[in-house]
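Researcher: Next sequence.
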Amino acid sequence: MATCPPVMDPVGTTLNVQVPNRGISRFTFDSLLWSASQQDVPVATQQDVYTETGVPVVEATFAGYNSCIFAYGQTGSGKTHTMMGGDGDTEKGLLPRVSEEVFQRAQTEYASKTCTFEVSFMEIYCEKVKDLLNSEQCSKDKYDSLKVRQHPVKGVFVDGVRKMSVSTWEDCRKLLQRGARQRVTASTSMNDKSSRSHAIFTLTLTVGETTRMSSSGRVASSQRTSCIHLVDLAGSERVSKTGATGHLLEEATQINLSLTVLRKVIDALVERSLGGSGKGSARLLPVRESMLTWILSDSLGGNSKTTMIATVSPSPDNIEETISTLRYAVKARSIVNMTKVNEDSHARIVRDLQTELQKLKSEQQDRTNDTYVLADQIKLNEEALAEVKRAALATANQHMKLLEEERTKRHNAEEEIKKLTQRLHNVQRALLIREAALKGVQDQESRCSLCSVM
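Model: Next structure:
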């Protein structure tokens, strides 16, 4: 995301920048917002910035993920205004808007669950870590920096920073205002109220719930923790433009050094995400070279859904800083973090087992249903087979009956033929007898005639 000056030409989410003597440079982002008035270009409000960047962070929080938003850019480009905002509800920045929405949604969506909120607010000033909610430490001109340590399981943490328990947004707002008043600022040639430190506001939401096992009736408890880091970085400075001298020059040097380390970490993470084989992918990330990158190491390249807001100046005099900021913002888009839901390992195992059990029950039910369906199908097939058998038997009986009738007809015909043959034989015998008799008569007549003649 980038907040765009009117001297540039946005086309969708692509920003075209006219660089003197170099032509046009194009930069593509996930979102592009204008913060300065220009003809035919709508001016983005603080609500628009929250909609583009704050809403996804709130959604990730309630899904159980860690998240982070940090504003990056040169001094005077609007980082603190974007993150902290100004006076009035319409000018509230991302930090109060995101925090307030988390409290409001937790009250409505998690009314039946146990929710706890913890807030911490720290700044990194000249590589010293100070707790902005510790009045005793803030009241001292010279103080010992809080130690940054690394736990083998919990990861990087600031030892000694106060985590204040709050229950309402109003309590959180008071702590936010109290810490903001303790930040180190100064007037420079480019900014009347320039932030001289990196501020990190952290809101932690822990949600506890109990689940009754359907099979055994036992109650299983689980916790899910989401952590939001909202970071207002000090701006990079060119001493020739800010006019910093003395103590301001020392502050500017420390700010630029920490931002240089941040850029080195971004370069290394980009190479790692793109699968390169260069130095960035082969060496360890240089996160310990700066307090800022060490504290935010998990947000930059670990278990966090991180959003980078690049703010740029509308002045043509700052074109070099603007191009540098946009280039690193484009690089940051290539970084891929591997995120996971933050929940107790035992609770995750129980949940996975419950899911697997439910899956097996569903499969068993499906198989049972398939068995019932198969039994019904077998029954239908048996009925159909019985019907076919009955039809076949009826057909066979019909054929047998016809065959028997045919046999009877044939037998009767044969008997009739026999009778006719016998009658023919009798007639032939009668004819023969009659012929023989007639011949005998003729022979006797012939003898009688001979005697008469004699």
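Model: Residues 236 and 260 are 9 Å apart (CA to CA). Confidence is low (pLDDT under 50) at residues 277-282.
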